[in-house]
Amino acid sequence: MDTLLLKTASAGAIAALSLAGTGCTMSTSVDGGNRMTMGGNIDMTLDQDDDLSLMGGDMTLNGRVGGDVSVIGGDIEADLDVGGDLSFVGGEVNFRGSVHEASIAGGDIDWNGNSRADVSIAGGDIRVAGTIGGELNVAGGELDLPRDLRVEGDASTAGGEIDFSGHVRGEYASGAREMRVGGVIEGPVKLAAEPGEGRWSWRASADGDGARAGSANGLVEITGELRQGGMVCARNVVILNNARISGTLRIWSDNEPDIRAGASVGEIVTEDRAGRDCDDIFDDHDRA
Which one, of 53, 42, 40, 43, lies nearest residue 82 by Cα? Predict the structure, then answer.
């Protein structure tokens, strides 16, 4: 997973949102029948073969666009069949429909679409469902990737808290403060949960006596099927009883991995993380 690329995408999203809110004006021209619209709030039902470009406030978009779609706005609600590529920059973004390739940046994002190629999403709270025909790259705060997500290529995610239950045909790389990995991953995994610091570093719950039950900070919890093993680096690693792991899984952790009775595991190789950064551990292993 290229964490620098994901961080850059997030920074670009913030910059674009700032520009959209300045109230700037720009001259436009129509070339070859392509449609470009600027204004306040926009509500459109579309049926066109050419490209579409929009800049405005809140937007509701429905229908079909044969070419590419590029939108900068406030809150965006879209149910579109797009023949080309899709680019959205907005506040709250909800997408239903189909595209060739998509790039989404915003605040809260709910993607429930089908793509024929890659999808890249950067934002705050993000939910991704549907079928991704290529690679999936997601960076945000809280990420929800449910059972009805299928990725035909590789997937990479970066966030604060990640809940993954989808199906990835390729490799899966993920970095977070804490993550839960279920579903099915056909390629090898590379999972890193680096403990956070500050006021959000503890997710405390209470036990029956009302005492602090512990922290999920720096936790990787595996409940799914890992068909080619891979690498995990975290403070704590828990493999629950419904996990199915084939191949070799290498674990670097601060504490001994907790492997529950009933879990089906192949070869588990463990090593003390010894305060090392997870990226450095993975880099050293890849070079070996």
Answer: 53
